[in-house]
């Protein structure tokens, strides 16, 4: 098209809400006005271009400038690939959330998402667009035609004979869906006028003035040994070349005002600077850019330099963001090299950090490598000519247990695919290295010549950036996109570790980055702002009141009494409300809430109410661990994040900066520079805000590959079995095979890009390093005793989530077992989960549930269960004691499931991985629910037996609570199936609510799991029930017998309620059947009855009639699994409905 993307805007846009249009300004208006924003879209002015983001179903906007004769053009930069309709409309068009541009008679639009054109009706037109494409919208009001171009290539005439005449004028307009975005700018095409003319006169003037400057720059070169060498600018300033300097001053007198205009900055200055770097070599090999920046600061007014640098960085960021991806990523590298060259200039860097990088533009874009939406766009077909995908999955979508030998053809394809991935990786690493280089410049703390060092400016801006993303999680326009966060996190880790190890090289006593952690005093000394993020012990204001004495004793920190009084008044109502809501939660609600709540293993931490005292605690800080005297008390300065200086962070002259208030448990060993500790803390917070969520989201591409691979495999098998006479079927199958193969080729190349940019080995090591940082931070915080409550919740969340990411997201490309110290890390994390899931210092419901679910997941898998068994014996016993605490007054379902998982594989008929009754009725059903393979722990079972036998109070309190919950769960289940049966018997058509079915199935599963815990207890410690010398044994045995009778009466009676509901085969109740509950009851009886003594025979006949009839009348068939049988011998059994009292 010939003109820069970020040119002067064609016109400003206003919203067109339903039933209302914008006023019609004159075509000769110098500055069109911007209308009042509505909720449908967001309009922002960036680099003098108009960016539009959709915030409704299908919002529409139009320009304030119209045309009524002649030929005109405007351009739209596609920022996202979604549903949009771009074109022209008249003043009479009325749009709503269903009808947009092109859906009304006098509006015309092109839709590259669906490759169609719209004018009330729709037909095929044009080509598909992608993010980064430029759409040109052309209108010829002399001929009455509308056409479109994509990236400068004409798509042909879209509409002809459009309405013209008196009163008809056309406005640029667009309709776009939720979260879609575009940027408007002007372009030129032969024969068409832009809606706003190019500044031709200023362009000519700027080019000539720049040419004069270039001629003078040549005078700086001297000949030495046959080479041209540039003189140092300082020589000009100190010794002077009066003629040259005066001439340059005159040139800049005319050149400087032009450099305040964005079009000229991009078209003239940016292209000139890029041409310097096109000569190749490192950025340092081109000092002319640094000298030019020196001259700009010397010869231009400050406000002119500021505007010029701002527009220059904005143009670079936009060019980097929207430039097309080509095989060598040359455009991205080009723009990043110039960005690094500009930021290498100290004065320019500090100005940009202070005023532009985080305040005006979203600088995180510089650290993002966008994923190509079209394989052809990135040239991936040339880089990876051979595609490959794993065939390790069964029809059920599970990893195959059989390791199939790879064929020679598959081996060659895989190796060729790996070589292509390596070529791609090398090219992307060039971009990543430049991004890390930029961050290293921003983290420089040695450039103190012109004021505060860059690192401390960056640190304050970075903290503010985190605050915006933590406090506006529902505001999409403020949040940094998670895909940007992922890349930013990895680059920041690389830059941080480089500076960390550099400090260690100069200070051998300090810790290396491999030993990095965040010291606990950062969490309570008020030097670091944690916004409204929840602490482990609750709100910061509450902790200051309750732990003020501990702060004095352990950290020599005294809270200002005036602040305490303000805090008390501020939180009085909240404390009362919290206490009321907690008291109103019934036990049953706690249980079922835990059972049905969303898994918080992957959830983000709870955000508490913003606390005004969080970051600026008024404290008095004394020398470490000295007796406090009345005269020593002094108030610390109260500072906002923006007001902090290097001394406040790093400390000096006895002031420890961020490390004030060191607890006695912390050694006085230097860790690293304090500023690096706060950056590390911010990295952990950033992972928690959105990085983990994005890592999980990108796994979807791998899942798509697996699904298509299974579909292709299934299609090929059908082709091989297709009869030759059915040619029609054969041809359809071949078509399907071709579609699946093409889709797999596309996805495998896209997956290669994702594996290199997100799931590479280096990225996995970054996440593993972050996991180790969190583990060490938690361990150090735990040693401080009660002060551990000040730690933000997100440290525990990141520890759990990063482990989950390593285990679930990076495999099978990379295995966690390859990481150094993997076994030790697993054990240390197990110790944290085992200790803190019942830690009284942790009060948040969400984080406690997350810890419980993480522990439950840990004991499901052999490798992590072995890690639990490796923790010290004392911690194991404490964990089991906490698990055996009474179930009342706490969410007990997760605790019960942990005990069940420790037992599964040892119980009666309890080795199955698929529900046996479903395997018999639906053996070929691929959607059968699959259970984790049993991996019981005999070691933890022994600890449980020892605790129950040795503690006379623990056993009855625990078992009574289990029996209480069993009574509740089974009663709720029976009540629900009665309602389901009544609904099914009505003549009118009734549908049972899916939520009710889910709750019903959950109550059944809870009943079975509680029975299994009882079986486990009776097997490990039968004397609790059978040794009547114990005061509670007879009562426990009677209660158990009554509940077993109740279960068998309801389940085994002929043609009873349970039977009828099971036979309905309702979706959602697949797990409800005779087998799971009856084998659990049988397991209890098999362990209980052989231990009866003569004195207990009376109880045998009075309390266990249903149990005896069940056990001795042979209701279980001979193919029922017995405890000694292997898993391969497992046969599904159906339990006949035997009358109870035969």
TrEMBL record:
According to the UniProt record, where is the region Disordered?
Answer: 643-662
User: PROSITE patterns per the record?
Assistant: B302_SPRY
The record ties this protein, via CDD domains, to:
SPRY_RNF123
Q: What does the UniProt keyword field contain?
A: Metal-binding, Transferase, Ubl conjugation pathway, Zinc, Zinc-finger
Output the SUPFAM superfamilies linked to this UniProt entry.
Concanavalin A-like lectins/glucanases
User: Highest taxon of the source?
Assistant: Eukaryota
Query: Spans of biased composition, class Basic and acidic residues?
Result: 643-653
All copies of the B30.2/SPRY domain together span 1-191
Q: What is this protein called?
A: RING-type E3 ubiquitin transferase
Give the originating organism: Pelusios castaneus (West African mud turtle)
